[in-house]
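PROTOCOL LOG
Step 1. Enter all chains and additional molecules of the complex.
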Amino acid sequence: MALREGVGLLGGIGYTARDLATRARRRVTPQQETQLMVLTPDFDTRPVISFQHVHKTYPTGTEALRDVNLEVPQGDFLFLVGPSGAGKSTLVRLLIREEKPTRGKIFVDGIELGRMKRRKLPHYRRKVGLVFQDFKLLPNLTVYENVAFAMRVLGEPDHKVKARVAEALDTVSLSGKEQTYPANLSGGEQQRVAIARALVHAPRFIIADEPTGNLDPATAWEIMQLFLRINARGATVVMATHNREIVDLLRRRVIAIDAGQIARDDRSGRYHDDLAKPQVRAQ
Amino acid sequence: MTAQADITMILRNLKFALNSAWQSFWRNLAVSLAAVLSITLILILAGINLLVGHAFAQVLDGFRTKVSEISINVSDDTPLQTVYDFQAQLAADPRVVTVTFVTKDEALREFKSDPQNAILATQIEGNPLDAKLDVRVKNLNDVAAIDAMGRQWSGVDPTDPTNYQGDFVNRMLDLSEWLAIAGVALLIVLMIVSVVIVMNTIRTAVYHRRKEIEVMKLVGATEWFVRGPFVLEGIMTGLIAAAIALALLAVAYEPAVVQFKSDVGFIPLSYDPAFISSLARDLLIAGALLGAVGSYIGVRRYVRI
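Step 2. Run joint prediction.
Step 3. Record the structure below.
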């Protein structure tokens, strides 16, 4: 709760202190960073996501990940890039515990995912907001019902559902479309509904798997703005993507995966490693 | 969380599950109806099995009372006091329910009153019939012992001592046992078949809704939250099927008995309206259970996270 008080201290602009600290760390001098640390004494420096020597081999014998080590601090915005089949999706599946690592450990928020009990899994999923390339909306439910669905499954009372859904739809600028069915929305609008659903139980992490993959460049950019806003509010965002323009423009942390291994981890990276082979791969 | 909050959450989840089950039933009406139809047929078969079993039990009960009653014929020269003494001795026996003394005159009147003997009765001169002691035995297995007692009694008619047909009784006992076993075996087979049918129909319903289930799991629904609506839908399907089967059986029961009686008159089948209510209870419970078990198994593979 000290974090929230920190927000007040900084002038109520809607950012948590932790988020400001993370953002500031990117372009601030060491002195400035120390000042921020003083300002937010309970700043949590432990990584919120941590992969320790993670291997994943599927029963078919495919070796999808080899010795992956990765640490993500709270409030980070992270792009996972790499060619298809490199292991991005496996990494995402491990993060949402659709798969267990063959070897190694994955910690999220202090929980070791590989050893988590099956009945604890729903509780873990509630902390994570998931966004997919194909939106995964239910076609027979309206926009409102789709977003409310994520709260209904938790057995939340109606008044709480109403308030939170309205808030989430407002965040993604879809107020007024509550009674529309997904089929009558554009791709970008559908993805915004999916994001609202991911946000509705105020998750600490957003995991997005190619969220702009089905969208045109302008719409993709709108969606990215939305993710940036969510990140600015304090949520950690991990995004697997093929969208070179966006990655290159935003210059956030980029982790490149190639043949199941981390090839590159740049603090403010580009889609391609332009120092190594700028002409060949940047086309 | 307080206990009260827990209960309101459970009620809310139950409401959600009921709504969801009801909607799903109507949205996938074709699949739902296929399931209802299959279970209805199974339950009709089960119901017929129960009805036939009940009818046989009734018939067997009839036979049992008949064969558990033996007549010990009294020879004409036996003094009345000897008869009374033996009657008292039999009445005191714990294996015996009742003993009735039928005099020669009463025996003749009884014989003549039976319409089947009408022609024969006109040709009878005098009274060729014996006086008799009609003994009703409590347990079928003891009839043979009472018969032996009668045969050893001094006042028995040596030419025609009793009307006991030992072999017949034993065969009846065997038959009733076999019928009971066959009925239970048939019921078990029907149960297994219907669980498999429900399982497959619910699996189809689950397959239609796999996207919804996937989303439920991704947003953190518990396994029981996902499973609940399907199990409720299964119970609903089972109950509807049971109601239909019951209605059809209830309508067909009496005409079938009447038809059977006119075709096969010698088997004393009878219409028993009281049995309908016990049949209703059995079928509804069976329908609900079959639906629940079938859908639980059907949904399990998809729901496991």
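Step 4. Note key features.
The radius of gyration of chain B is 31 Å.
The mean pLDDT of chain B is 83.
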